[in-house]
Amino acid sequence: MRVRITEAKFHAMQRHLTATLLTSILAAVLGSLQIGYHTGNVNAPAKIIEEFFNHTWRARNNQSMPDHSLTLLWSLSVSIKDFGALLGSLGVKFLADSYGRRNSILIVNALSVAGASIMFSSKASESFEVLILGRLVFGLFCGLVMSLNPLYIQEVSPTSLRGAFATLNQVSFASGILVGMVVGLETVLGTERYWALMLSLSLIPALTQYLVLPFCPESPRYLLINRGKESQAEVALQRLRRRADKVFTELEEMKEEAAHSQSGVTIHDFFKKRSYRQPIIIVLVINLGSQLSGFNAIINYSTRMFQAKFDEAKYLTLGVGAVNVIFTLVAFFLMERAGRRRLLLTGFISIAVCNLVMTVVDSILHLVPELRSLQVLLVFCLISAYELGPGPISWFIAAELFDQPGRPIAMAFTSMLNWGGKFVLALLFPPLLKILGAYIYLLFMVVALIAFSFTWICLPETKGRTFDDIAEEFRGAEGIPLHNNTGFNTFT
Predict the structure, then answer these.
(1) What is the tally of structural domains in the chain?
(2) Separation between Cα atoms, residue 213 and residue 101, nearest integer Å
(3) Tell me: the pLDDT tens digits for 136-147?
């Protein structure tokens, strides 16, 4: 029986897949591949790039940079990308509504090209400020594209595969992290001679995107609901679906959503509209819970975390990257089967448990050195739990909880929360680790438990539901506490 169900789902997926749809999604996620690459490639060669900072400082001031200043400068170099992303997210609504989803991705890709080129020139110019500037410019790209990608992917995907395809954005991001970790090794390009070249390799997927994405259709929802171009929306759907019955059904569903939507939503309207209040709070808690529960500290600083305990810390960091990719793929296959809600709950409670046990293990590690292997296992478990649900879902859940006029602002809000959380954690983790030691993981545990509790109480299941159906539930909930609505409390 189970084999028959699985076969039925596989054949259903085949019916929905077309070459145009698959090409459009894969072309879009090349952007998140670049972001993942620049997240993972500074981990292993950190000491070499720090020595470049020190060498530059000595050449200017005839003395070495103080250790605390070097630590602060490196933290700034790592976190400035996330700060740039926080700034970049402010432009999501303007670009998405003015130029469309696909065209906006192509426009912001220029920031990736510029950022990589600037970073590459930092060594030749003997300036660590140029490297920091390059990461800032690349950060602007990050904040824009990590909102535009899910927006485009969800609006071109069929309802039954919407969550799975949106998860591909996280799969690409995780794959980029792993590639960056590998390329950053001393045995590859993470050397004193080649580290600047390593920073420029994101130009390959950036230029590939310029070659492929212009031939992909614009979002049919954007064309119909935002621009009122029904004939163009129908042509785009024809290319994406290849089946007349599917095209007709989706067009009717989009027209119904357009009938329920107001012509435009300003930022003021977004935060004042009663039907948006509960989704805003849900997005706030899920995204901050995802970013501040420990994952980003491990991704940015895993090599340093392992260095004090293992001779081959860089290769353990590769294990972190590999586990990261594997479990984003697991999430891809489970997303339309288990649903968003169940995966989020499982992920958050698992993260909380991992952080609690890590606190205990790290506290007694000096007494029982044999536990260091358990600590590595816990790091892998925490990464797995994050990518099983909170990681991928936090980036696209806002696109499902809001209607078409509010969706770009919601995705900008998502980007601000995600990148703001990453920035704060990347900047504060090294000094907090020195102050709190192992007890820093208790802070991560508390954040994960708060996110778990709120998800349990407030988040509706969005799997297999149309955008208008989800929006209707919130419209009907105006003035009604969500916990009184049975649709919001189902775990299945």
Answers:
(1) 1
(2) 11
(3) 999 999 999 999
CATH (domain of 128): 1.20.1250.20
Q: Supply 432's token pair.
A: 């907090």
| Structural domain of 279 | 2-216+261-488
Asked, for residue 252, whether it belongs to a domain, the answer is no
Q: Residue 485: what pLDDT?
A: 43
Let me know if residue 44 belongs to a domain. Answer: yes
Q: Do residues 153 and 165 touch, judged by C-beta distance below 8 A?
A: yes
Write the pLDDT tens digit of every residue in 82-133.
889 999 999 999 999 999 999 999 999 999 999 999 999 999 999 999 999 9
CA angle 444, 448, 452 (to 5 degrees): 170
| Residue 88 in domain | yes
Contact between 142 and 169 under an 8 Å Cβ cutoff? The reply is no
Length of the chain: 492
161: amino acid identity, one letter = L
20 closest CA partner among 235, 229, 173, 221: 235
Nearest Cα residue to 478 out of 281, 285, 276: 276
Cα distance between residue 125 and residue 57, in whole Å: 13
Give the residues of the chain that fall short of pLDDT 50.
1-6, 8-10, 12, 477-492
Q: Does residue 468 lie in a domain region?
A: yes
* Terminal alpha carbon distance of the chain: 20
Rg (CA), the chain: 23
Reference 374, options 386, 360, 361, 363; nearest CA is 361
Mean pLDDT of the chain: 87
pLDDT, residue 368, reads 84
Residue 106 token pair: 């192509």
